């Protein structure tokens, strides 16, 4: 047995050899291509400090940043039929649902939470794009309606964060029925005289943008968010005209009156709290 080869050298290599670096320690900025330290990104709510690019953020992370002291209470979503049409493409729809539930730890794409922002009691409803592209199906529609009903019962303003590719094709017409259903819930909120603020995040498209996403009292968009109904390529092929640069971007929609304001994510909470005080006729917050 060679003592130096079998014992000494491995010990030296273990002490001075290359250490494994976690893969998520540095993240590439899609806008500039620069590498950003994950901790810096997390401290800035997943907005790249240099370029201002807004990375996609998980719904639960957004709740943590949005509510005072990161404290909130999740509402239980109502139960619905899991696979009403027994749909199958490359795999069964019920198997897709199980897969996404395991990945995200959520029942579906919608989370409802009650909490406080700058001392104001509010209800927040969030679409998580990580769950089947934030698609709108029966479960998501029922959860959104539950958020509105709870907000009305507790007399809380509702802030809805949209992030969706549209209706969930695996549920067919049952998915499209969620558009009028959620629209009725919005009307109930307005009849109750409670503020309803929509925050449009990237992307907000399809049936979501054709229903509750565009029915708020105030529409706020995150910078760079894609907002629209059909995709730009589909529109261009249909009308046979070249679309303007930046078409369907948050900034373009604000310039053309479809969005009230474009606000960076770290400024959202403060902006929404100020708007709610005006709408509820509450005194301004003292330092």
Task: Kindly summarize this structure in a few lines.
The protein has 287 residues and is an alpha/beta fold. It has 2 domains: 21-55, no CATH class; 56-280, 2-enoyl-CoA Hydratase, Chain A, domain 1 (Alpha-Beta Complex), CATH 3.90.226.
Using the coordinates above, name the CATH class of the largest domain: Alpha Beta
Report the biggest beta sheet as strand number plus sense, adding barrel if it closes: 7 strands, mixed
CATH homology group of the largest domain: 2-enoyl-CoA Hydratase, Chain A, domain 1
How many independent structural domains?
A: 2
- How large is the count of helical segments? 10
The percent of residues in helical segments reads 25-40%
Radius of gyration: 23 Å
Structural class: alpha/beta
What does the average pLDDT come to?
A: 91
Oligomer class? single chain
Question: The CATH topology of the largest domain, please?
Answer: 2-enoyl-CoA Hydratase, Chain A, domain 1
Beta percentage is 15-25%
What are the secondary-structure elements, in order, as H or E?
A: HEEHHEHEEHEHHEEHHEH
The backbone outline, from C-alpha atoms, is: globular
Which segments are poorly predicted (pLDDT under 50) over 5 or more consecutive residues?
Answer: none
**Strands of the biggest beta sheet: in what spatial order?**
3-4-5-6-7-8-9
Query: How many individual β-strands?
Result: 9
Second-tier CATH architecture of the largest domain: Alpha-Beta Complex
CA(first)-CA(last) distance: 74 Å
